[in-house]
C-alpha cells in the first residue's frame, strides 16, 4: 500500500510538471502566433527576407564619342559560363537542372571554349567530389561573346548557365588611349582609372537599380512574389573635341616613326588655335586598353611630363620684345657667343658658338640664334619684364585642360645664367600643352585660349544636351600687331633659305613655325652625342589665318650618323597638317600658278645699271641705283646670291649721289653705308624717316650720315597696346 501511495504521488507530480510545461509551451506558441515576434524580431519580416531574393540591375556606363559621333568607348556585354553539379537542384528527373553527363558536357563544350576536353571534365568531377553546387572554368569561361553563348545554348546542356558581365571596350584599340583612358571592374563596378574615363567617371557611371521578389527553396518565383523593380539610370554620353580622322592620321604616322626610329618618347598635339579645341593628341609608347601588356607609363606626356622647350621658347622671347616696342628686326648684332659678365657663363649659338657674323635680329630668329634671344632679354626687354611676360603666357600655372593628372613646368629664374638660358628654352621647363596654350596667342591675334577635350555631355535616353562647352579665353598677353609680327618671323623660319625649318614646308599651305632642340638632363648633367636630344617643332597653317596648330616632339630617336634628328618630327608634322587641312576643306593658300621663287643674282660688275635694274625689277626685286653713271661698280649682293621677291638690291655706279632712303630698313641703310664707306649713325628703330644728307647731293667716302628711324606702330598703336596690357594684367 505504501509503495502504491508513493507511486501515485510521484505520478501526480509528473502530471503537474508536464501540464505546467504544456501550458507554458502552449502559451508561448499562442503568443508567437498572436504577435508574430520572437525576442523582438518580427517573424513576418524574417520570413520575407528568407523568401526574398534581390540583385543589382547595373546601369550601363555612358559612351565616349569623338566630335562627329564616332564611338570610342562603350560597355560591351560578355557572358560568364557556369555548370551546376549538385543533383539536388533537379526537382524533376525528366527535366534535369544539373550536369547529368560530365563526359558528354566536356566533349561538346571544349571546342567552343577553346580548351582541352580533359580541362573541363576535371573541373566538373572535382566539383561533384567536393559536393559543390556549381563550378566555373577560369579565364576560358569568362568574357564569352553573345555569339558563343548562343552556340552553347543550342546544345541544350543540362546544368549550364550564364551570367551577363559588361566590360569596357575600346573599338579602336590604341587610338587616343591616353585621352580616352581606361575603365575596369573594381568592387563589381566599372570605374575609370585615368583619362576621360577617370575625369568624367561620375557622369559616365549613372546609377544602378535593383530587382527583388519572393521565391521558394529552389529559387522559383512565387505566384504572388511581391516583386519590386527600380530601373537603373544609365550614364550620360561624353563627346570629345577629338576628330577621329585627324587622330587616325596622327596615330598612323607616329606608329611609322616609332617602328623606324625607336625613340624613347614621342608626343604630338593638334589644336584649333581660335577655340582651344584639341583635335588630336598622341604619345608613344602607348597601350591598347583592351589588351594591357607591359605598360611602362600610364601618364599622358602631353600634359603630365614637363620638358625643356628648347628654341620653341624663342617665339615668346621675340613676342615680348616686340610688344615692349624695343625690337628692331633690322638691327645687327654679333652672333656666335655672348657673355654679360665674367661671373656668368657665356651663351653660345647652336653651331658650336661660331655664329654667322653680324646679322639682323630677324635673321637671328630664323637661324634660331641663342645669342639673339639672350641679348633681347638682357639688353632690350629686361629680365624682370621678361618674367612678367612668362607669367602672362601662363608658364607658371597649369592650363586647366579637362584631363586628370596635369602638371606644370617650372620657371627656373633665380640666377643671371638661368634668366639668359630661359630666353632660349633651356633650364626652364613646360609641358607640351602649356606651350600650345601660350602659342594660341600668336596664332589668334594675341588672345590666348584655354585648351579643352570635352565637347558636350548628352543624355542617351533623350539625346538632350546636358552640358556644352564653349571656347574660353585665357588672357591677352600680346597685341594683335605683335602676334602678326611674330607670325611673319615664324614664316621666315620655314621660308628663308637660312631658316632652321625649311623641311617643314607644306605643298599647298604656308607654314609659320619654330624649331626646337632641347638638351636632356640626366643625373644633373646634359647628355651629349648624336641623337641625344628632344627634337621639336610648333607650327601653324595657313599662316595668314591659322586653322590648325601642331606641336611634335621626339626624344632620342635612333638616327643614322648622317641623319638629322628632326627627320621624324617633320614627317609627322607634314603628313598630319597637309592631310588634316585638306580633310577640313581648308583652301590652299599657295598660288601654284605663280609659285614664290628665289631670285638668283647674275654677274653685276661692269654691267649696264639701267638694263640690270629693268631685268631684276621684273623678277620682283626692289632695285635702287645710286649714282649718275651707267656702269655698276658695287652691289649689295654677289653673283649666285638668292633674294626673295621684294628684297632690296642696291647698285652703285660712278659719280654716286645720295638717294631718298625714306622707308628703307636698318639693314638696307647699313648695307648702303658699307658700300659707300660712310660713317653712319642710327637713331631709333623701324624704317627710315629722316636723313642728314639730302637726296641728290654728291657723296664722299668717309662722310657722316645720320638716319632717324621710326616704327609705323609707334604713333598709331602705342596707346592701344598699352591699354590692352592693362586690361590683361
TrEMBL record:
A Pfam cross-reference name: PASTA
UniProt keyword annotations, A-Z: Membrane
Q: What class of enzyme is it?
A: hydrolase
Q: Which superkingdom does the taxonomy of this entry point to?
A: Bacteria
Its localization reads: Membrane
Q: What is its EC number?
A: 3.4.16.4
Task: Check the record and name the InterPro entries matching this protein.
Answer: Beta-lactam/transpept (IPR050515), Beta-lactam/transpept-like (IPR012338), PASTA_dom (IPR005543), PBP_dimer (IPR005311), PBP_dimer_sf (IPR036138), PCN-bd_Tpept (IPR001460)
Task: Identify the pathway.
Answer: Cell wall biogenesis; peptidoglycan biosynthesis
Family, per the entry?
Belongs to the transpeptidase family.
Which protein is depicted?
Answer: serine-type D-Ala-D-Ala carboxypeptidase
Q: Which reaction does it catalyse?
A: Preferential cleavage: (Ac)2-L-Lys-D-Ala-|-D-Ala. Also transpeptidation of peptidyl-alanyl moieties that are N-acyl substituents of D-alanine
Amino acid at each position: 500500500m505504501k509503495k502504491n501511495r508513493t507511486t501515485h504521488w510521484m505520478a501526480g507530480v509528473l502530471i503537474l510538471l508536464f501540464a505546467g510545461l504544456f501550458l507554458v509551451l502552449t502559451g508561448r506558441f499562442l503568443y508567437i502566433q498572436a504577435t508574430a515576434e520572437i525576442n523582438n524580431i518580427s517573424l513576418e519580416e524574417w520570413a520575407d527576407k528568407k523568401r526574398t531574393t534581390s540583385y543589382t540591375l547595373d546601369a550601363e556606363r555612358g559612351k565616349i564619342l569623338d566630335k562627329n559621333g564616332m564611338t570610342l568607348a562603350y560597355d560591351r556585354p560578355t557572358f560568364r559560363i557556369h555548370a551546376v553539379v549538385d543533383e539536388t537542384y533537379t526537382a524533376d528527373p525528366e527535366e534535369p537542372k544539373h550536369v547529368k553527363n560530365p563526359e558528354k558536357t566536356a566533349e561538346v563544350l571544349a571546342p567552343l571554349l577553346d580548351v582541352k576536353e580533359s580541362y573541363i571534365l576535371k573541373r566538373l568531377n572535382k566539383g561533384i567530389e567536393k559536393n559543390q553546387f556549381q563550378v566555373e572554368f577560369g579565364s576560358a569561361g569568362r568574357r564569352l561573346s553573345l555569339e558563343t553563348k548562343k552556340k552553347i545554348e543550342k546544345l541544350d546542356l543540362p546544368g549550364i548557365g550564364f551570367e551577363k558581365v559588361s566590360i569596357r571596350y575600346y573599338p579602336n584599340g590604341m587610338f587616343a588611349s591616353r585621352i580616352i583612358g581606361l575603365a575596369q571592374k573594381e568592387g563589381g563596378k566599372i570605374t575609370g582609372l585615368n583619362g576621360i574615363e577617370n575625369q568624367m567617371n561620375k557622369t559616365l557611371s549613372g546609377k544602378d537599380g535593383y530587382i527583388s521578389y519572393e521565391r521558394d527553396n529552389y529559387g522559383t518565383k512565387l505566384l504572388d512574389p511581391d516583386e519590386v523593380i527600380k530601373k537603373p539610370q544609365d550614364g550620360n554620353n561624353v563627346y570629345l573635341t577629338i576628330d577621329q580622322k585627324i587622330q587616325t592620321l596622327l596615330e598612323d604616322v607616329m606608329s611609322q616613326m616609332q617602328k623606324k626610329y625607336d625613340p624613347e618618347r614621342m608626343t604630338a598635339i593638334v589644336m584649333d588655335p581660335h577655340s582651344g579645341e584639341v583635335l588630336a593628341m598622341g604619345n608613344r609608347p602607348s597601350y591598347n586598353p583592351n589588351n594591357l601588356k607591359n605598360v611602362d607609363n600610364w601618364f599622358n606626356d602631353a600634359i603630365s611630363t614637363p620638358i625643356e622647350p628648347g628654341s620653341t621658347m624663342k617665339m615668346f622671347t621675340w613676342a615680348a620684345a616686340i610688344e615692349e616696342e624695343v625690337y628692331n628686326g633690322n638691327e645687327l648684332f654679333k652672333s656666335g657667343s655672348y657673355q654679360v659678365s665674367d661671373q656668368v657663363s657665356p651663351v653660345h649659338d647652336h653651331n658650336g658658338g661660331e655664329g654667322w657674323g653680324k646679322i639682323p635680329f630677324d635673321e637671328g630668329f630664323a637661324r634660331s640664334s641663342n645669342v639673339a634671344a639672350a641679348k633681347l632679354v638682357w639688353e632690350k626687354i629686361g629680365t624682370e619684364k621678361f618674367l612678367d611676360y612668362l607669367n602672362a603666357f601662363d608658364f607658371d600655372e597649369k592650363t586647366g585642360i579637362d584631363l586628370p593628372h596635369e602638371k606644370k613646368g617650372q620657371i627656373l629664374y633665380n640666377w643671371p645664367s638661368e634668366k639668359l638660358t630661359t630666353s632660349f628654352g633651356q633650364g626652364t621647363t613646360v609641358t607640351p600643352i602649356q606651350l600650345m596654350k601660350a602659342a594660341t596667342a600668336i596664332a589668334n591675334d594675341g588672345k590666348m585660349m584655354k585648351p579643352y577635350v570635352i565637347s558636350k555631355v548628352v543624355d542617351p535616353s533623350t539625346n538632350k544636351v546636358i552640358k556644352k562647352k564653349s571656347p574660353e579665353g585665357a588672357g591677352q598677353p600680346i597685341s594683335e600687331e605683335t602676334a602678326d609680327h611674330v607670325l611673319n618671323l615664324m614664316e621666315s623660319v620655314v621660308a628663308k633659305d637660312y631658316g632652321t625649318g625649311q623641311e617643314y614646308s607644306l605643298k599647298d599651305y604656308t607654314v609659320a613655325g619654330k624649331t626646337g632642340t632641347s638638351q636632356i638632363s640626366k643625373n644633373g648633367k646634359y647628355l651629349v652625342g648624336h641623337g641625344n636630344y628632344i627634337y621639336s617643332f610648333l607650327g601653324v597653317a595657313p599662316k595668314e589665318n591659322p586653322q590648325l596648330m601642331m606641336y611634335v616632339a621626339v626624344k632620342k630617336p635612333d638616327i643614322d650618323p648622317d641623319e638629322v634628328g628632326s627627320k621624324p618630327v617633320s614627317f609627322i608634322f607634314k603628313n598630319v597638317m597637309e592631310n588634316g587641312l585638306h580633310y577640313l576643306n581648308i583652301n590652299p593658300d599657295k598660288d601654284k600658278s605663280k609659285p614664290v621663287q628665289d631670285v638668283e643674282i647674275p654677274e653685276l660688275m661692269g654691267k649696264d645699271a639701267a638694263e640690270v635694274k629693268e631685268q631684276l625689277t621684273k623678277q620682283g626685286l626692289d632695285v635702287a641705283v645710286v649714282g649718275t653713271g651707267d656702269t655698276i661698280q658695287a652691289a649689295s649682293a654677289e653673283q649666285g646670291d638668292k633674294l626673295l621677291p621684294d628684297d632690296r638690291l642696291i647698285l652703285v655706279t660712278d659719280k654716286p649721289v645720295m638717294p631718298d632712303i625714306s622707308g628703307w630698313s636698318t639693314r638696307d641703310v647699313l648695307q648702303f653705308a658699307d658700300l659707300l664707306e660712310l660713317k653712319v649713325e642710327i637713331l631709333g628703330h623701324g624704317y627710315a624717316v629722316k636723313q642728314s644728307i639730302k637726296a641728290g647731293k654728291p657723296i664722299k667716302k668717309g662722310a657722316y650720315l645720320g638716319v632717324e628711324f621710326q616704327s609705323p606702330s609707334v604713333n598709331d598703336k602705342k596707346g592701344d597696346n598699352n591699354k590692352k596690357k592693362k586690361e590683361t594684367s
